[in-house]
């Protein structure tokens, strides 16, 4: 199978590299040519191309990993998007987090061109992307999922079919609530440790093996404590995800914890002359001390 990968950001750079390193032919494209992910893909054997057209023409599987809903729509349905150049029968796997409604809309728009669509949002962060250990939650036609599975297995370890198109996104939004509220707990536990004169390393080491253990605590706990705010997963992206959740539930389903996390992330987003959203989500701690 010939493949293409569109969007070589923090996640897409490593994911396309793992695909290429597994022996697949990968045409890789990024809007901005000098991003670190472009070199990561190139070094792993991907063929870097200059346009979406060049990337997807005569290709069987097209992976996309960009930012927000308008970005995925631009790459797939836009003037120079995949829809105009992919062959009938091609499969698009979108790894971006965009919510179920957007996934269903894109899938419907692709139907007349006989292009298949799977929503396949991921969890596991840049570390999971680099190590090929992502959790991937997939929505769409089950037979298409089975065809695409070997591709997904080059990037992830826990690959789950969730149901019709949009179902992967539905699970991913639940995941984002868990991630956000985990971080509230981590920040407050770290502040309490500091107040009691307890070494944060001790809190992470001990609590991560007990009932409070989580990916977030093991991977972000010490970063919170040590003020390492490099992304990882940027605050601007989690705010996108919380926005999608809040727009979807409207006022039908009160989610006070999600609202609190959203509020704390927004405080940090405004820091650094408005550039605070480019930090990793663990920078939530800055909402507490505002420096
Ligand atoms: P990122 O580093 O900010 O990369 C975003 C990528 O999308 C870049 O390649 C960017 O191209 C491209 N892009 C954005 N808008 C575009 C447009 N209109 N047209 C063409 N390309 C466009 O983000 P990321 O961390 O890789 O995340 C990508 C997606 O995965 C997001 O939906 C995010 O929520 C999700 N995700 C991220 C993580 C994580 O830990 N980072 C984990 C799970 C899920 P340029 O380089 O030209 O800007």
UniProtKB/TrEMBL annotation:
Where's the 6-phosphogluconate dehydrogenase NADP-binding domain?
Answer: 3-163
Q: Which family does it belong to?
A: Belongs to the HIBADH-related family.
In the UniProt entry, which residues are flagged as the active site? 172
Could you provide one GO biological process annotation from this protein's UniProt record? organic acid catabolic process
Q: Which residues form the 3-hydroxyisobutyrate dehydrogenase-like NAD-binding domain?
A: 166-288
GO function term, MF aspect, one: oxidoreductase activity
Q: What is this protein called?
A: Putative enzyme
Entry's EC annotation? 1.1.-.-
């Amino acid at each position: 199978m010939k493949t293409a990968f569109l969007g070589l950001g923090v996640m897409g750079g490593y994911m396309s590299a793992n695909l290429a390193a597994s022996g697949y032919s990968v045409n890789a494209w990024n809007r901005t040519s000098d991003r670190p992910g472009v070199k990561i893909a190139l070094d792993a054997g991907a063929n870097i191309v200059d346009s979406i057209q060049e990337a997807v023409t005569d290709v069987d599987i097209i992976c996309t990993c960009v930012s927000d809903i308008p970005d995925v729509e631009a790459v797939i349905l836009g003037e120079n998007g995949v829809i105009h150049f992919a062959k009938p029968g091609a499969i698009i796997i979108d790894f971006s987090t965009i919510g179920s409604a957007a996934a269903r809309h894109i899938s419907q728009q692709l139907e007349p061109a006989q292009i298949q669509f799977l929503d396949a949002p991921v969890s596991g962060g840049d570390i999971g992307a680099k190590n090929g250990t992502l959790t991937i939650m997939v929505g769409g036609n089950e037979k298409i999922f089975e065809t695409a599975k070997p591709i997904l297995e080059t990037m992830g370890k826990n690959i789950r079919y969730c149901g019709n198109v949009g179902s992967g996104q539905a699970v991913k939004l639940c995941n984002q609530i868990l991630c956000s509220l985990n971080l509230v707990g981590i920040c407050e536990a770290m502040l309490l440790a500091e107040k009691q004169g307890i070494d944060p390393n001790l809190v992470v080491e001990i609590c991560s093996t007990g009932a409070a253990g989580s990916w977030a605590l093991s991977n972000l706990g010490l970063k919170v404590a040590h003020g390492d705010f490099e992304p990882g997963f940027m605050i601007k992206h989690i705010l996108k995800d919380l926005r999608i959740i809040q727009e979807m539930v409207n006022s039908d389903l009160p989610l006070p914890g999600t609202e609190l996390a959203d509020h704390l992330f927004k405080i940090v987003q405004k820091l650094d002359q408005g550039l605070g959203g480019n930090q990793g989500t663990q920078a939530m701690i800055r909402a507490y001390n505002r420096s």
